[in-house]
Design brief:
Blueprint (H helix, E strand, L loop, with lengths): L9 E2 L2 H10 L2 E8 L2 E8 L1 E4 L5 E8 L4 H5 L5 E12 L12 E15 L2 H15 L14 H9 L1 E16 L8 H10 L3 H9 L7
Length: 208
């Protein structure tokens, strides 16, 4: 499975790609299996070891057949979607021109191992702590009755995606260097501040 990436849109900085995954952690999980492709949409928890290797942790419902084939899958990819928006040719100074779409995505390819119950419990603690951080007071898994927690753990399957390859595509008007700053300004004025900021952080390459 390969993502088409023209050279000017390729994002390769490992730190930037990892940060992107952390900030856009709800991803599309795609894997192959005996019945064809499986697709799920799940929040991931990203972590790195001292060598920089990336590991993505998540879970799916036990009733979801995708988990049964994850460990044997020939291909597994998690697709992380960032900000995106329509770009009108009326925003360009150079013509003729056509409409397009600006967006950023990161594809994480790798192999999957299933988590045991203790690892799954730890993952749920970490996930809930991460996403409850903004609540006052935050909900805590420890508040649940033990038998309820046990039954919920039995209804899901945790897994770790050991990332072997990251692909980043940041299509942000780098092919129109004269127009990119104005496009970012228009998008920001339309409420697409995150996309505008990403464009400014990834400007067209300077001419040599």
């Amino acid at each position: 499975m390969t993502l088409y990436i023209p050279p000017q849109f390729r994002a390769q900085d490992p730190e930037a790609l990892f940060r992107f995954i952390e900030e856009h952690a709800f991803a599309t999980l795609v894997s192959t299996g005996p019945k064809g492709l499986h697709v799920s949409h799940v929040p991931f928890l990203a972590e790195r070891d001292d060598a920089g290797r990336v590991r993505l942790l998540a879970h799916v419902a036990r009733a979801n057949d995708q988990w049964k084939a994850l460990e044997e899958a020939a291909q597994v990819v998690a697709i992380f979607h960032g900000p995106h928006a329509y770009v009108s040719p009326t925003w360009y100074s150079n013509h003729p021109a056509v409409p397009t779409w600006n967006y950023a995505v990161v594809h994480a390819h790798g192999r999957v191992t299933l988590l045991d119950e203790a690892e799954l419990h730890d993952l749920l603690l970490r996930l809930s702590a991460a996403y409850e951080a903004g609540n006052d007071p935050p909900w805590k898994m420890s508040q649940l009755p033990a038998d309820y927690t046990s039954s919920m753990l039995g209804a899901i399957v945790g897994f770790a995606l050991e990332v072997e390859r990251l692909e980043g595509k940041f299509k942000l008007s780098q092919n129109r260097p004269a127009d990119a700053p104005h496009v970012a300004d228009v998008l920001e004025a339309q409420g697409e501040g995150e996309l505008a900021a990403l464009m400014r952080a990834n400007p067209p390459p300077a001419k040599v």
